[in-house]
């Protein structure tokens, strides 16, 4: 397979740097082709602005959506954006690796998403009507590809448990997994999570490496998170809200997951958490 690793950590000699090298070596050892977008090493420009188009703002003021569409459709995107889009087209699997900073991804990785996910490339695609509200959430440019997060946290696993002080890790990662990845069509695999990243010795590192190797070895066969597809009957279109008979009484992020072994019409309990792997 072709695998793109988008890596966001500023220190090559960090734990994340070691894991990045391990990931690349393991994947290549398994016969996969690997490209790495090391955002800090690349000096990636994180800010979305008029310079993302070779033409600058095409109107009196900068309009991110309109100008992004113009640049994408007319081949006028800045070269760094176009190069990352080519990597995404090439990839069968995309891995986003980052430390959890202030309950989200580092700003440089968020900036990669904002700039690379151009209008017409990752959003604003497909028919918009009273029957089909765009090719998104299970459809879109990335449909047929897989994606996975590799995330380190300084906090304990218990801090991110269902009743942990930091909030459930599944909820914290939902905007990234469901929004950033599932929105343009990726099948999203359960994340690889490493807690207490500042407490690492050789014994634990060997254990973590073995667990990560197992996940990398099964990228093709691991079942994705069962997010609901937008245009396949679960949602009222164009309101994009769940039908009343789907997961009745369930609200929030959990409502957008299918429960294992149930039919949509009989889903009384859709509150299962996203499966995670440590």
From TrEMBL:
One of its GO terms (molecular function) is NAD(P)H dehydrogenase (quinone) activity. One of its GO terms (cellular component) is cytosol. Pfam families: Flavodoxin_2. Residues 1-214 form the Flavodoxin-like fold domain. Keywords: Oxidoreductase. It comes from the Bacteria. InterPro entries: Flavodoxin_fold, Flavoprotein-like_sf, NAD(P)H_dehydrogenase_qn. Belongs to the NAD(P)H dehydrogenase (quinone) family. This is NAD(P)H dehydrogenase.
């Amino acid at each position: 397979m072709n695998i793109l690793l988008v890596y966001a950590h500023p220190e090559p000699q960090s734990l994340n740097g070691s894991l990045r090298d391990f990931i690349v070596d393991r994947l290549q050892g398994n016969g996969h082709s690997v490209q790495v977008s090391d955002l800090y090493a690349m000096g990636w420009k994180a800010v979305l602005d008029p310079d993302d188009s070779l033409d600058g703002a095409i109107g009196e003021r900068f309009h991110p959506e309109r100008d992004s569409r113009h640049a994408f459709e007319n081949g006028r995107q800045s070269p760094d954006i176009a190069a990352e889009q080519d990597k995404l087209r090439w990839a069968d699997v995309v891995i986003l690796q980052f430390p959890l900073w202030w309950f989200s991804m580092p700003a440089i990785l968020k900036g990669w998403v904002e700039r690379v996910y151009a209008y017409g490339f990752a959003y604003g695609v497909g028919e918009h009507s009273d029957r089909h509200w765009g090719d998104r959430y299970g459809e879109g440019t990335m449909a047929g590809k897989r994606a996975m997060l590799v995330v380190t946290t300084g906090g304990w696993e218990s801090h991110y448990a269902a009743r942990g002080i930091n909030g459930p890790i599944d909820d914290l990662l939902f905007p990234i997994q469901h929004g950033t990845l599932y929105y343009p069509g990726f099948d999203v695999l359960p994340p690889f999570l490493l807690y207490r990243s500042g407490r690492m010795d050789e014994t634990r590192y060997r254990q973590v490496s073995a667990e990560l190797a197992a996940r990398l070895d099964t990228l093709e066969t691991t079942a994705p998170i069962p997010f609901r597809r937008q245009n396949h009957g679960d949602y009222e279109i164009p309101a994009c809200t769940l039908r009343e008979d789907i997961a009745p009484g369930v609200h929030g992020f959990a409502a957008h997951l299918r429960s294992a072994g149930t039919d949509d019409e009989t889903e009384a309990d859709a509150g299962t958490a996203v499966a995670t792997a440590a």
